[in-house]
Design goal:
With 195 residues, the chain is of the alpha+beta class. The protein contains 7 helices and 7 strands. 39% of the residues lie in helices and 20% in strands.
Length: 195
Amino acid sequence: IRSVIDGQVVFRTRGTLQDTEHTRAMREVATHKYPILLDPTFEPERSLLFEFVSPLFRIIIRYQEADLIFIGIVSHHDLSLADVPELKQVAEESGFHLVQIMELPTDFSRLEETVEHFASEEGVVARTDNGQTLVKMKSARYLAFHRLRFALSAKRLQEICKERNVHSPDDFAEYLKEHDADWELVEDVRPLVDT
């Protein structure tokens, strides 16, 4: 989130105003790619929402370079979100990398099924409530690897091994590699799979 607070440009993550390694990296991207974001007179009454991607802060999906993907604008006065045509206009005028916009099914079960099968995207940010609510929906593949990375437990790995007919750490490593997991994740899980 990029905001102007007390005349100062602030980069933050949801729920915090703390300066972190991530916010410093976001500021670095802004400095090199989107210097207008460093100008406190640019959009001082609204916060700009971005998805921060980076090869250095990789969770699951591999990104080639650090970037701020523009996904929304929220007004400080009434917390309303800008509509898509305005996002496109701001992105074009400012040179921002606008998130890919696509038509998706409006029926929830069909939407869930569509997002679940994404292979190279994390998921979508769906607009609901006449565009005034943003909802993140993650793909099944992304969620599975996210759980593996952050919720590893012997019990969870045992369940996966039974589901996937895995009988050795090497079998499990092959399963992870088939799903584009990185070497670090394969090595992190090896002792738990062995156990």
